[in-house]
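re: the backbone from monday

yeah here it is again, tokenized this time
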């Protein structure tokens, strides 16, 4: 240790030229560093020497067999490629330079430095150090080439990538305690503690920090000080969970497939430029940065503040197929610009809300995709042309009076205003809002009200086609679905409904409220004026001139009632029978089928209006009218066997008995 201290004092007090010789490797005798005749000038390397390894030398596989304590060399310079060295540790006052135009230099011994620079000049050259590196001040990586440190980087010092665009990889569980500066080039991390201890943090000053091989960097503080900085996921599923201060814009990039989770809280005046490649970038921090956000590819938002403050604008980039995806249970307040082609909003999981404005182009709609079993509520205004609704989940639109919706799947609820909606089969339009135009001429379902709750849906102009359905829900005498329109065409659409209470006869339901003086055009499929229909097990009659004369009104009529007539005695002598006849009334007046019961059990095949009762017992019948409403069971009629009872008398007595009459 005393020798090392003396050498350091000596080195600091005299010029580098006086520290030692420049020794050039010839390798003429062996691969051992201690052998004098392997060097020019001849002699074993000693403290203060510059060691040079040229091209054209022999024995490129070398061993540092100089005994400990390690002499403090000034530098190692590899002007030739293909060298590999192992053996005892090396201490350096200066650094290591690989100046060869291409090829590799590989060092397997430990290296100790104070403040040193490792340089690989050419982008086609590389330096790989598998031994441990100890640094007490700062290790600077320079040059355009590749440097790989697979041994442990330790000590109180830090690491800096500051000139030439070096490509540096850290793959060990490092313990160094100093700062990490990436002002240029690329620093690749292949280990959760590649950046050493988390106390001093990392600064991106225009360079790139790259995670590879499913790496999680936890607790490391990242400061972005200059534009041009990038945080990159190279492969696998990678995580950055430490806090990030954005004093300048940060590019978050996913190189290919996989997932990049940025979970740390982000603050500052800078913004984000996200490029998710063919994978997905996930933001899940509680963020307060105020700079703009742009994205291409898939960007998932898992917290309400993932996109920064509510004033932070979010813009989808020019790349096709770019999606802003929403995780579960978030309300996002930011404005979203989906003007560029291929951009869309995607509700992937759970129930979410977008409360900021959404900008679409003037001449094209942008997709809003809502996955099955999820709900997306858009309370911000959708402007310009509007949206195309895809996915089988539910989209809720609050107030977008100037936008239109092309509804292709699932349910869309309009609760305030939407200019227009066009439906296709498989799409449902509901809610309690107002639309200027509703076009279901190609199909689709109109449901006035919310899911599970009837209401009033208004359309200034309505067009239904033969593939369309008006679905109404009736929950009470004053609680039922109503489609309010200012003129429209029913077009032979299907009328479907659910009835969730038992209304009394004569109760009416205005299911289409035509607020103009014009008659309604067309009828529902198979339902002309005064036709009968059934909701649940209740008979209804439809009128297109109800209400104030031009509304569609359903009226509850009396249900079918079944009685039984026997046409004579209800007793019979075997093998005879009693003919029973069902006598229905009410309902539609036309009856489709019957069902006879003996002692409360349905008689198989007994489905006609008459039945020969050949078995004593209690008989009832139900009747089904022409629209499928089934009556209650009739009052029972009892059919008996009139055979006389058996009489047992003494042999001396003669008994005369009538057996059956």
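seq for it, each position gets an aa:
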């Amino acid at each position: 240790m005393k020798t090392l201290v003396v050498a350091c004092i000596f080195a600091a007090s005299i010029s580098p030229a006086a520290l030692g010789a420049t020794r050039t490797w010839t390798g003429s005798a062996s691969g051992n560093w201690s052998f004098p005749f392997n060097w020019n000038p001849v002699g074993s390397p000693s403290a203060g020497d510059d060691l040079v390894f040229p091209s054209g030398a022999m024995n490129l596989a070398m061993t540092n067999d100089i005994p400990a304590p390690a002499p403090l060399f000034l530098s190692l310079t590899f002007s030739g490629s293909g060298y590999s060295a192992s053996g005892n540790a090396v201490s350096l006052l200066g650094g290591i330079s690989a100046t060869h135009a291409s090829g590799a230099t590989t060092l397997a011994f430990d290296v100790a430095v104070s403040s040193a620079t490792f340089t690989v000049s050419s982008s086609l050259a590389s330096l790989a150090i598998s031994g441990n590196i100890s640094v007490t001040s700062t290790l600077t990586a320079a040059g355009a080439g590749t440097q790989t440190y697979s041994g442990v980087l330790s000590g109180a010092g830090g690491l800096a990538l500051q000139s030439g665009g070096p490509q540096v990889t850290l793959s060990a569980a490092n313990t160094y305690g100093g700062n990490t500066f990436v002002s240029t080039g690329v620093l690749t991390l292949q280990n959760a503690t590649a950046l050493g201890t988390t106390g001093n943090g990392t600064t991106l000053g225009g360079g790139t920090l790259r995670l590879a091989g499913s790496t999680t960097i936890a607790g490391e503080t990242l400061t972005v000080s200059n534009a041009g900085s990038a945080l990159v996921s190279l492969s696998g599923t990678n995580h950055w969970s430490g806090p990030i201060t954005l004093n300048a814009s940060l590019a978050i990039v996913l190189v290919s497939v996989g997932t990049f989770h940025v979970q740390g809280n982000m603050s500052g005046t800078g913004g984000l430029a996200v490029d998710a490649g063919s994978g997905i970038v996930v933001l899940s921090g509680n963020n307060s940065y105020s700079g703009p956000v742009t994205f291409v590819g898939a960007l998932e938002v898992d917290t309400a503040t993932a996109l920064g403050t509510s004033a932070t604008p979010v813009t989808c980039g020019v790349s096709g197929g770019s999606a802003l995806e929403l995780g579960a249970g978030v309300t996002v307040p930011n404005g979203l610009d989906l003007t560029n082609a291929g951009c869309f909003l995607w509700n992937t999981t759970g129930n979410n809300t977008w409360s900021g404005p959404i900008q679409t182009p003037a001449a094209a709609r942008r997709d809003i995709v809502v996955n099955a079993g999820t709900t997306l509520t858009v309370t911000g205004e959708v402007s310009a042309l509007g949206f195309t609704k895809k996915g089988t989940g539910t989209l809720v639109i609050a107030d977008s009076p100037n936008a239109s919706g092309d509804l292709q799947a699932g349910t869309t609820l309009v609760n305030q205003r939407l200019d227009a909606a066009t439906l296709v089969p498989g799409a449902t339009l509901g809610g309690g809002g107002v639309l200027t135009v509703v076009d279901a001429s190609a199909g689709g379902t109109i449901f006035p009200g919310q899911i599970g709750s009837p209401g009033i849906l208004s359309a200034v102009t309505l067009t239904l086609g033969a593939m369309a359905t008006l679905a109404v829900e009736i929950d009470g005498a004053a609680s039922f679905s109503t489609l309010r329109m200012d003129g429209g065409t029913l077009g032979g659409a299907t009328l479907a409904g659910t009835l969730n209470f038992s209304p009394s006869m004569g109760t009416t339901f205005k299911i289409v409220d035509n607020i103009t003086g014009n008659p309604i055009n067309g009828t529902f499929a198979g339902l002309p004026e005064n036709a009968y229909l059934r909701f649940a097990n209740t008979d209804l009659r439809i009128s297109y001139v109800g209400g104030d004369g031009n509304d569609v009104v359903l009226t509850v009529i009396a249900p079918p009632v079944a009685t039984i007539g026997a046409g004579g005695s209800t007793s019979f002598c075997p093998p005879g029978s009693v003919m029973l006849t069902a006598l229905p009334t009410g309902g539609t007046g036309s009856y489709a089928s019957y069902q006879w019961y003996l002692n409360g059990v349905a008689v198989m095949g007994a489905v006609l209006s008459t039945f020969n009762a050949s078995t004593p017992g209690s008989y009832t019948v139900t009747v089904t009218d022409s629209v499928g409403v089934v009556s209650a069971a009739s009052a029972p009629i009892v059919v008996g066997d009139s055979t006389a009872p058996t009489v047992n008398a003494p042999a001396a007595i003669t008994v005369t008995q009538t057996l059956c009459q």
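Residues 432 and 489 are 20 Å apart (CA to CA). Residues 1-145 form one domain.
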